Amino acid sequence: MGADGELQQALQSLRVYLQDLLDTGVDGLPVVSGPVSGKAGSSIEGQITGKDTAGQSLNVSETEEGGLQSELAEPEVVATGTGETLDDIRSELGKCILCPLGKTRTNLVFGDGSREARLVFVGEAPGRDEDLQGIPFVGKAGELLTSMIQRMGLKREDVYICNVLKCRPPNNRNPLPSEVEKCQPFLLRQLRVIKPEIIVALGTFAAQTLLETKEPISKLRGRFHDYHGIPLMPTFHPSFLLRSGPDMRWVVWEDMVQVLKRMGLPVPDMRRKK
Ligand code: URA
Is the CB of 124 within 6 Å of ligand 1? Predict the structure, then answer.
């Protein structure tokens, strides 16, 4: 067999190998650099829905000598392809000081729950308890959220919980646009890794940030919105529920019923006491 034939055979074996990977669910391979790679977070489209393909991530080309040159290499940079893990993102964040909150926080609050979660809750930013413990939604609002998750027939460890901001703004002030700008790419990458079926945005800030709108939460809640291919249900923030009466909790429950139905999960029978 001539050099040409060997090359064709090698390319054919590579095609079969890549098809095998695709068939077994591997839909991306890391690359180091080059035209097909890009820093995750730079483009939202395709990241959340995991549209990256092996073809994009693995760049195999013929060299001038007719040999195979593969860009398959150590996952040294974060490629747009899949293969990134939550641990990778957490490590990259490290002791992040991309914004001034890095200097005032006690702990960076990355996220909590299952990497395989079908459902992700996104809040605003860590509060005092979360800052101290490094875990999202562990204070009073967190207790309410956890109890709502349980009432939905789920366990907290089955879902994933995180925030738009990873660090606590001093005195729980509203996040600044500059802080959101620095932090949001990491949230997008988390969502891209998890690829949930549904996202619940908790409160005005999360809903408005994720949906890039100024519409009030009262108008946004109660119906699904599209978030890069993922249905997103905005609802009231648990902190708001702590301050408002029981009626609002029923409103949130109605939103969660829609979430459960959309996920094909049973809806627990919750009757309002007369
Ligand atoms: N409020 C949030 O939005 N996030 C938390 O983690 C806690 C309270």
Answer: yes
Cα–Cα dist 127/139, whole Å: 8
Cα distance between residue 234 and residue 212, in whole Å:
13
Rounded to the nearest 5°, which phi and psi values hold at 230? Answer: -105, 130
Q: Which atom of ligand 1 is nearest to the CA of 163?
A: 4
Dig out the tokens for 50 from the structure.
């995991």
Q: Is the Cα torsion angle 130, 132, 135, 138 positive or negative in sign?
A: negative
Distance 125 CA to ligand 1 centre (A): 5
Highest mean pLDDT among 8-12, 27-31, 43-47, 193-197: 193-197
Nearest CA among 185, 187, 183, 182 for reference residue 161:
187
Whether the predicted pLDDT of 199 surpasses 50 = yes
Dist CA 238 CA 221 (whole Å): 14
Q: How far is the CA of 45 from the centre of ligand 1 (A)?
A: 27
What distance in angstroms lies between residue 256's CA and the mean position of ligand 1's atoms? 18
pLDDT tens by residue, 135-175: 999 999 999 999 999 999 999 999 999 999 999 999 999 99
Q: How far is CA 91 from CA 20, 87, 110, in A?
A: 31, 6, 10
